[in-house]
Amino acid sequence: MKRKILSVSILLFFLCGCGLVTTAGRHEEQSLNFVVMGDNRPVNVFRPEQPYIYHKIVEQAVAFNPALILNTGDLVLGYDTHSIEKANKQFNDFEEVTSPIREKGIPLYITMGSHSAYTKFTREAFANRYKKKETGTLYYSINVKNCHFIILCSELENEPSQITGKQLTWLKQDLKQAEGKHIFVLIHRPLYPKIKHLKDSLNKYPEKRNKLAGILKQYNVDMIFVGHVHIYNFSVVNGLSQIITGGSGAPLIGSLNDGAFNHFFHVIVNGDNIDYRLIPLQNEVEMATQLMKEGRVKGALSLAKKAIEILPDHPMPYIIAMVGYKSNGQILKYNEEIAKLLSILGNKEEVFFRLGEFCLNVELLDLSNFYLSKALAINTDSFKIWYHIAQLKKIQKQYSAALKMYKKALPLTDNNRFIHDIKKQIKEIEKLL
Question: Is the pTM of this model over 0.70?
């Protein structure tokens, strides 16, 4: 008779002197250990690289030498992929960051996330890479020692936010064959969402969700790992255990008390015992960004330098450092960072745009105007430059200028999200004039 959850241990090392909570004692013999992470997609279309923190998560996860790694989905941004080439580029970027996993020969199993289902191109690119080759399905299972891992898909075409039809029939059969093993289930959308996505998770169809939950409970599933919501949360509903682990790099939601911190899970199975270890990570980039927004330039610079030491090829630490040096009048250091950032981003237009976008984000409006103007001088046909200048002018309450900039930006994009937003902004501004 296998023992249910032994513990949900927390290895907590938080910023700003929040202290240390130790884990339960390590088992002398570990029959199996694995890692769960997810929701590592880029922040937005203007910061297309994989987030800084995800690089750290991959490095630390590999150091555990796990038998396998599970990813709860949302690897890429997805909604701006209007060609197979662009979709493949986004997945190639993800695979470049996860190359340490493959180099150590660690199997990586991924469930499709909602961002991989936005367009037919992301669907195709994801399926080509991560479906079960033998069956051609996006749902399948694997056995490792005394553990059974089930990868389900909450994003099947015409069946989003539900596990139904052929997939549910297959699941019942698969669970029957797994009796006596520890059973772990991986899905992108939660059965029981928290904080956000309260209406588009599996609870969107309560009867189907309850049917799925009943089946999983019937076969004594040990844990359901999900993502979609960018937090950590552990819950037990009617005897069914669920961990939301969506903190690998996508923008966090809610507060620290809501579970809004970067993390992943290290799970140790030792015979009948299971130890779930929550591993939070310090995100120097996000901390530095917040300090810069608060006007604490010295602290932001210190963290940016630390981030550069940890990950010398990521643009965000250099962007923060450059803004810090510019604010402090440290011209020599500023020029050094310009050269490094140029080598990463490839051209001056992108360098100035990214600096302007960051300054706008941290409310350094004069600096944002300085950098965006320099980018515009290089390229007057760039949607993203006009769009951000329009945002800047609106924040500065220069409504006539903002209206003009939004109208400049509108014909330069075919992205429906931005078209909708710009039309909304124009209507709001026209009411103010």
Answer: yes
